Amino acid sequence: MPRRSLILQLAAAFGLGAVTALGLALGGVLPADAKPPADALARLKARFVKPDTIPFPSNNAYSAEKRALGEKLFHETRLSGTGAMSCATCHQQALGFADGKVRSPGHDGARLQRHTPTLWNLAWGVDYFWDGRARSLEEQVIAPIESRDEMAMPIGTALATIEKDDAYVKAFAAAFPEEPRVSRENLQKALATYVRTFASPPTRFDRWIAGDANALTADEAAGFQVFAGKAKCANCHSGFAFTDEAFHDIGLPGRDRGRGAVLRLAAADHAFKTPGLREVARSAPYMHDGSLASLEDVVNHYESGIVKRKSLSRDLQRGLKLTPVERGQLIAFLKSLSNEDAPNLPASIQPAPSAVEVVAARTHTVTQDDKQFQPGRISIRKGERAWIVNNDTRTHNVRIFDPKLNFDSGAQEPGETVQIAFPVTGSFLVFCGIHPKMELRVEVEP
Ligand code: HEC
Ligand code: HEC
């Protein structure tokens, strides 16, 4: 289910929040990590294990028929105003689902505002586009069709064209037996399902993670240690897909406000979504503006290209200086995340079982250490308040979008506590606008 259906941009105006700095003594609040001290490298490796199933939302479950229809639509040029462009024009599988261009030409040949991103592993994503303005893949996939800059096709016209094609009518009926119609919603669901199957295939790195010590060269393995250690790349490029799904200003020059414009929050200016790094050797050039031509240029940026400004991410390593050997190792490691041969999509799809519901804790205080709400679900009574304590090293932005209750804390700096009153009953999703993987469910009972 698309967890938050409202568009952030529209709801951003209703800021009701107030941030209070309480200067709490935070040390005691931290949950103690009670795990026995295992081998540090083994623990590090465990954080990068590739799942063998793909998550699909409960309101758009996987089926082979949906996938097949989505694949057909992804390559359908009749969805564009010129009749010459499809999703695959800009998202080419052999190029990491990007297109090798700094910025692609759109509908009328003019360059788009931003660089075409890769589409690997988006099933695990939270918000979409470089600035996260789409809250689900279903919402995202329709945007390029209607966008005047991209495919420039009114969706009504597109549906009418497709409906005249018997093969499509049959394919929609097979994919949506409950509601066999060529409709906007079904088109969104089919395209989103296909995009969710873009799970990057395993590489030598995965064999190394699984315990085959010879799967990486000594340099590549050392490069992983630089990546996760000295260079702190894994502060943001974390997990098997190498992204925290959060928004960071990494100091690229330019005037694009990125996430800051969507949230209307200066603390998120110049922040863009951390791209995953799977198959990254195939998708040059890099960054939201396509400004860096090679992985060497990317590493140079992190060492000496960072523009100093207030919105720079606190997760960014300042004054990074690598030796020539370390630099070579880091780049060798980055390349080991790509397959030697052009990567294929998985032949058969294993949908992930639906997540187990967490039991709601009876508490009013929630912490935010290490980009996580703790606990993740609380239950309180109508009229009571919740206190969200920023005991993290990062700036957060606590939000609720709900017809019954809107909340925007603004920038919540480390050490500050946000107070939210819940005058109505219901189940509310609280999340961070900057690190949207952080989610807290608040059950408000009578
Ligand atoms: C003319 C080139 C072009 C075409 C055609 C195009 N895209 Fe894109 N796509 C882009 C660009 C550029 C972005 C980034 C825009 C931004 O972030 O502001 C993007 C972003 C995306 C994203 C978000 C990725 C992420 O990490 O959040 C998805 C998913 C996507 N496109 C899917 C599609 C689908 C599905 C179609 C066909 C219906 C399509 N695109 C057609 C250029 C294109
Ligand atoms: C503070 C979080 C953060 C840290 C630390 C970080 N990155 Fe990034 N990385 C990002 C973000 C955000 C982007 C996209 C920025 C943009 O386009 O404006 C990015 C982009 C990239 C890209 C381009 C990917 C693409 O598809 O365009 C590569 C490669 C990369 N980073 C590698 C690294 C390496 C190597 C390190 C360590 C030296 C590192 N990153 C450290 C957040 C981070």
Automatic annotation (TrEMBL):
Keywords: Copper, Heme, Iron, Metal-binding, Oxidoreductase, Peroxidase, Signal. It comes from the Bacteria. The keyword Oxidoreductase applies. The keyword Cytoplasm does not apply. One of its GO terms (cellular component) is cell envelope. It is an enzyme of class 1 (oxidoreductase). Its EC number is 1.11.1.5. Residues 65-199, 218-353 form the Cytochrome c domain. It is found in: Cell envelope. This is Cytochrome c551 peroxidase. It comes from Variibacter gotjawalensis.
